[in-house]
Amino acid sequence: MTLYALDLFGTAVFAISGVLLACRSNMDFFGALVLAFVTAVGGGTIRDALLGSTPVFWIQNTHYLWVILAAVIVGLATLSWMVRIHRILQIFDAMGLAVFSIAGAQKALAFGAEPVVAIIMGVLTGAGGGAIRDMLAGQVPMVLRQEELYATPAIFGCLFYLLLLSWSVNPTLATVIAGILIFSTRMISVIRKIALPRIALPG
Amino acid sequence: MTLYALDLFGTAVFAISGVLLACRSNMDFFGALVLAFVTAVGGGTIRDALLGSTPVFWIQNTHYLWVILAAVIVGLATLSWMVRIHRILQIFDAMGLAVFSIAGAQKALAFGAEPVVAIIMGVLTGAGGGAIRDMLAGQVPMVLRQEELYATPAIFGCLFYLLLLSWSVNPTLATVIAGILIFSTRMISVIRKIALPRIALPG
Amino acid sequence: MTLYALDLFGTAVFAISGVLLACRSNMDFFGALVLAFVTAVGGGTIRDALLGSTPVFWIQNTHYLWVILAAVIVGLATLSWMVRIHRILQIFDAMGLAVFSIAGAQKALAFGAEPVVAIIMGVLTGAGGGAIRDMLAGQVPMVLRQEELYATPAIFGCLFYLLLLSWSVNPTLATVIAGILIFSTRMISVIRKIALPRIALPG
């Protein structure tokens, strides 16, 4: 129940990040709607298609779609305010990343996938939508150019989640611990500007 | 029967728009084939994958593929003529948009999807192929930069189609009316250069 | 058995081509991992999703994922050497193209697809991963800009494979012959710089 509420919350936050990029890319209302939609459900949609969980989740539960529509309308109506609260949105986005990543790993496990697949599905669910958003706007996905850590917290968070489960930790507790790990690692990297080193060719 | 003929017609027209972009992007014959293919079947393919209607439609009915191959050959053989009849192709493209959008919404309904999903699937089927075409050619999808209305007619056409069905209008009649609505709205926006307003940051 | 070994070999080679592009695109370790992953399994993943063969192959057999991880680690550790043996990697890449294309066509046939679909699935499996890799790095897919033949050998190789099968040639022998045809055509075009002519507008 709480996880579902967090999932819808993450959907709204991711949708608003799509609206903001549509605005920066000089798009119109439809562009904002599309970018909000792909950011919010893109990762989970690919996950479901690869797992064979079709019709994909937002076809089976359309609440996600109404949350996105509401987020687009609210986002556009308060656009100048949304731009000003950029730092707060980063906090929300980190929450979305945490919730989506764990939820993605859980869904993969529910389909009988191996741990390594669950981690991939977690990262895909958490970071895939934003990658499609960036590509639609003509940019190399932020998650691949990462000035800060984005996918890395999701990878280690999902890995830690699987470890906790293998140690027979209560699943709800494991979700909370791994989620806090992802959220806090992401926020620390944003604040301290921590990034992975670039690949460089040895001289 | 007539709808199927229109569907194949839309396939050919969309394929030719792929050939024209391949030409403008300085690609070779294979590039033309790929861009024609993704423009013609890309939207419907994603729709089928998300609905779980697999193998996707052109694997089950390969007529679409032969129509695309024929369209590429005819398109390349008459390339200088195709470029000259640009305005006529826009009329055909508007027909393709109308047919594909309604057909996409119908397929979603046949899979038991809710109305809001049917609208998304309609727009995806009508405009998704062109979006993939543009991304493969290294451009931000035209449908997101829209100088004219493209997706908006599809959205309202599919919405109107669903309203007509809910009012117990004969399905064939509803298809014709909604199709004409999409086609005419699209053409009016092309002729009058009507577009949605850009999102702008307030002062 | 041998084909499976070749398949894993192709996976490793394609993964390394992803690492090299991530390096040229100034990405970090995660970027290298993602580009290696999509190059190695991207084409086969789309093939499986379109055929309805879900969960897709690397979810069912995670050996592919461990091969990719190993290839990324080895590739990054020997990066300056990998760049120097560029020509050798092209030979490996041509092997990967040959193996993946035939394997893709075979899988489509096993799902009862018609010959034309088998050819499309062959080309998609062989060249699709590289196309996604290029798009993620912000480039028009190499296979569409082809300075040399890449997809064309795959098309004709798959076509010839189907012809051999229709002539009741032993499937293993047909695989070997068609694979050698793809490999050698690709290598000749690399060495001789043979490409398809660009589409040009007449006068």
Description of the molecule:
Three copies of one chain form a homotrimer. By secondary structure, chain A is mainly alpha-helical. The first copy, chain A, has one domain (2-192). Helix content of chain A is 77%, strand content 0%. The first copy, chain A, has helices at 2-24, 29-51, 57-60, 63-77, 79-84, 86-110, 115-136, 151-166, 171-192. In chain A, α6 crosses α8 (151-166).
Most extensive chain interface and residues per partner: B-C, 33 and 33 residues
* N- and C-termini, Cα separation of chain A: 54 Å
Q: How can the largest sheet of chain A be summarized?
A: none
The fraction of residues assigned to DSSP E strands of chain A is under 5%
Q: In total, how many beta strands of chain A?
A: 0
Helix/strand-derived class of chain A?
A: mainly alpha
Task: Provide a compact summary of the structure.
Chains A, B, C: It is found in: Cell membrane. The structure is a homotrimer of 203-residue chains. With 203 residues, chain A is mainly alpha-helical.
